[in-house]
Design goal:
Order of helices and strands: HEEEEEEEEHHHHEHEEEEEEEEEEEEEE
Number of helices: 6
Helix content: 10-25%
Length: 375
């Protein structure tokens, strides 16, 4: 008879629970919730405890005698702050503000000392936190002393992107000289990307190689109107050098995701799709459009409707060509340009594994023409 094997027991050490430990020692943890913008402690307050961020985000800032504020750190879940009390720092030297809805655990100084001396797992975690912060401070100092202002800006953008990773609504600062977009773009190989960024007032673009759109961006030559500003291990920052256009396409809706090959990029539409076109020239203008199109499987008629009025109908061939569209009389601000296929879209095939999307026309590059000048 086969001998029964003894049951396998896990040797994995469970994560250290700060709240549970404090409760077992009689030190009931104090947990407080803070709304965005609420001050956790202010510069100059007495320091009586160490804070542990359970969820949310915290901004640490210092204020000079002249009233100038500087942000010194952005913290996420699992970070400690206010730990200077352990070294005899009785006065808070910075202000901690909730950058988003946050839950903070307050650990009294005596209890914190016991945790460090008696709980190895906790001590390891706390030491890793302190070392990580010191490394970041050293990197900030080197950055300030030796790097150009543009490269310092690029590093800040990358740090902010790391901080916001996994958060669908990261809190990013906005200043008059630079605009940071909230969220990510999945179309960074759009032919007119630099014009759109310039039109929206964006000065720098951060591209990561760990996404499908990022890999496609780096597989292609750098688009005109962009210049490499800084290169990092997990991303590159590009300065937007394109001039601000009079007209740009701010959004493309009801299109399938962008595709590309060595010859160019394109996005398929189904039965209908739309552009949001923005006139930032400061007055009414009349513009034409050179648009690269191809039809799926056979010639198709594409109806162009601008602000509710039919402008024209294009006969689009399966081979890729540039078609002249317009003219479009534009008032200042955003307007909608709708594309409708006169014939129903068709799927590539119905066999298993084939592309099931209903397709009509593919849109490639485009150029706006204003008073005979190509923008």
């Amino acid at each position: 008879m086969a001998r029964k094997k003894p049951p396998v027991t896990s040797t994995t050490t469970p994560p250290f629970d700060v709240e549970k430990y404090l409760a077992s020692t009689g030190d009931a943890p104090r947990i407080r919730s803070y709304r965005r913008g609420t001050i956790v402690f202010a510069q100059g307050d007495r320091g009586l405890d160490v804070k542990y961020l359970q969820k949310g985000s915290i901004k640490l800032s210092v204020l000079s005698h002249t009233g100038k504020e500087a942000v010194v750190a952005m913290l996420g879940p699992g970070d400690f702050f206010g730990e200077g009390v352990l070294a005899g720092q009785s006065i808070r030297i910075a202000t901690a503000t909730a950058a988003s809805a946050s839950s903070v655990l307050a650990i009294q100084t005596d209890a914190m000392s016991r945790l460090i001396h008696e709980e190895t797992a906790f001590a390891d975690r706390f030491i890793a936190h302190v070392l990580g912060r010191n490394i970041r401070i050293e990197a900030d100092l080197v950055d300030q002393l030796f790097n150009s202002s543009e490269k310092r800006l690029a590093r800040t953008l990358l740090l902010l992107a790391r901080y916001g990773k996994g958060n669908p609504h990261p809190t990013l600062p906005t200043r008059s000289r630079i605009t940071l977009l909230h969220g990510a773009s999945d179309d960074c190989i759009e032919p007119n990307l630099s014009a759109r960024l310039a039109g929206e007032g964006v000065t720098h673009l951060l591209v990561r190689p760990d996404s499908r759109a990022g890999r496609a961006f780096f597989d292609r030559p750098l688009a005109p109107g962009l210049r490499l500003a800084a290169r990092f291990r997990d991303g590159q920052v590009f300065a937007v050098t394109a001039p601000r256009p009079a007209i740009y396409v701010a959004a493309m809706t009801r299109f399938w995701p962008r595709e590309h090959d060595v010859g160019g990029t394109w996005r398929w539409m189904s039965a209908d799709a739309a552009w949001t076109v923005v006139n930032i020239s400061g007055g009414p203008i009349v513009a034409a459009l050179d648009l690269e199109l191809s039809a799926f499987q056979r010639q198709r008629r594409l109806i162009l409707i601008f602000d509710g009025h039919v402008i024209q109908t294009l006969a689009v061939d399966p081979m890729r060509h540039v078609y002249e569209a317009g003219p479009f009389a534009m008032t200042p601000g955003p307007q909608e340009l709708v594309f409708q296929s006169a014939e129903p879209p068709a799927a590539a095939a119905t066999a298993a594994g084939a592309d099931p999307r209903p397709l009509s026309c593919a849109f490639g590059a485009w150029v706006w023409i204003l008073r005979g000048q190509r923008l």
